[in-house]
Amino acid sequence: MSAQDAARVARGEAPQAQAEALRRRGVDALTDARSRGGDGRADSDHANDARLLREVPPHWA
């Protein structure tokens, strides 16, 4: 177990791989886009772009 995962487990959190798998299973992209509001047309065109920009891994920023 990595040091980061050990710290997460010590705080009562799931290891990163498990937490990511749960997050991915929790909400699909369409539900996520629709939950952000709007009329479903203009916002949905950019929903994936916004999601990708929000979820940039720290080592790419």
Automatic annotation (TrEMBL):
Region of interest (Disordered), residue spans: 1-61
Compositional bias segments (type: Basic and acidic residues): 21-61
Superkingdom: Bacteria
Name used for this protein in its record: Transcriptional regulator
Organism: Actinomyces ruminis
